[in-house]
């Protein structure tokens, strides 16, 4: 998600950082629309009915710092990324273990704004996408199963549907997922669309735009697709950032393996907004990452909810984790299963190219 207004948000984040230790009140839960599925199917995200005072609108993110111009290239090229260990604890979380926490930095001016992430099925590697369209891949070092670092990073600009490499900053990529055949699919907003990338994401060839339901055209430019998840059967699930009103559920657009689209409903509990989603390897559970920003409550809050896909189309999510306060903007989510059978969540934070924010990489195990 991109927004403008460097000065306003810089001041906001400075204040948020100063009061981040203050406890944030639990968000109030609003009543859902009586017909959740109908509301989800007919409510474009960001519609006028959505409350004007919603926190993310009160403090728009900044424009990025100046970047060096460069010719786009589809070939993967080495990039220096440092992974600095971070002492991070999921306070109050039951049944969760922190198996890794790092701050990622790079001198490469293109690095930052990470909005989507895909972890390899065995947890040995990762691919990120930024909201400037940059792909970054790396190996994950592990020690006794825990995440120990990130090495051998490479970056590339994927090709567009015409086969030409996309320039850095040309596309607002918001989510990334891996299809059952190994190909990567990326979701964009402004306009909302989904591309299937060729080969390893940056191989020679053309990206293919996946057919979209008419509802995508109704999504606002900065409230479009934020989450994309692929099931092991090839079904795709796409969720916009907003639902159209605080009492309306988020529409979950499902593309069946046959190519047919349908829509389900994910109940919304204001004020959280969707930032990403992922499906565990067996395809039974949809995990959804959500975020809120409220300066007076300590900055960003975020949570993870899980929904049983057997309840489709009326999903009934449960909250797995809630973290209140701070300046870190959690944007990307991926899920894998470790050798012991535990589900692990890999979460990345978008620094918005702001010095007061960080690119965090967190890994949590669900016991």
From TrEMBL:
This is Phytase-like domain-containing protein. Residues 1-20 form the signal peptide. Residues 41-57 have a biased composition (Low complexity). InterPro entries: Phytase-like_dom (IPR027372), UCP031900 (IPR014567). Keywords: Signal. Residues 41-71 are annotated as: Disordered. Residues 110-353 form the Phytase-like domain. The keyword Signal applies. It comes from Rubrimonas cliftonensis. The keyword Ribosomal protein does not apply.
């Amino acid at each position: 998600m991109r927004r403008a207004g460097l000065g306003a948000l810089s001041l906001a984040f400075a204040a948020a950082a100063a009061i981040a230790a203050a406890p944030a009140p639990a968000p109030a839960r609003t009543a859902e629309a009586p017909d959740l599925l109908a509301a989800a199917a007919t409510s474009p995200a960001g519609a006028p009915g959505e409350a004007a005072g919603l926190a993310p609108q009160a403090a728009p993110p900044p424009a990025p710092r100046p970047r060096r111009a460069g010719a786009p290239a589809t070939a993967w090229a080495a990039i220096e990324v440092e992974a600095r260990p971070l002492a991070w604890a999921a306070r109050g979380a039951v049944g969760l273990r922190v198996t890794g926490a790092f701050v990622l930095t790079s001198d490469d001016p293109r690095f930052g704004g990470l909005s989507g992430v895909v972890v390899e099925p065995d947890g040995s590697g990762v691919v990120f996408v930024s909201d400037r369209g940059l792909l970054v891949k790396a190996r994950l070092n592990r020690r006794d199963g825990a995440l120990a670092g990130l090495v051998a990073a490479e970056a590339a600009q994927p090709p567009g549907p015409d086969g030409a490499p996309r320039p850095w900053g040309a596309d607002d990529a918001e989510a990334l997922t891996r299809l059952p055949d190994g190909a990567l699919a990326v979701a964009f907003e402004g306009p909302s669309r989904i591309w299937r990338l060729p080969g390893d994401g940056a191989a020679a060839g053309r990206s293919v735009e996946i057919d979209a339901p008419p509802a995508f055209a109704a999504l606002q430019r900065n409230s479009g697709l934020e989450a994309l998840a692929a099931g092991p059967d090839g079904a795709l699930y796409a969720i916009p950032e907003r639902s159209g009103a605080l009492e309306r559920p988020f529409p979950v657009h499902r593309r069946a393996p046959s190519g047919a689209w349908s829509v389900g409903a994910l109940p919304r509990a204001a004020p959280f907004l969707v930032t990403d989603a992922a499906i565990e390897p067996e395809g039974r559970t949809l995990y959804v990452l959500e975020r809120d920003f409220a300066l007076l409550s300590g900055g960003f809050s975020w949570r993870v909810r899980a929904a049983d896909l057997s309840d489709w189309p009326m999903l009934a999510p449960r909250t797995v984790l809630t973290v209140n306060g701070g300046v870190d903007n959690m944007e990307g989510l991926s899920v894998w299963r470790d050798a012991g059978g535990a589900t692990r969540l890999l979460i990345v934070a978008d620094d918005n190219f702001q010095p007061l924010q960080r690119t965090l990489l967190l890994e949590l195990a669900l016991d």
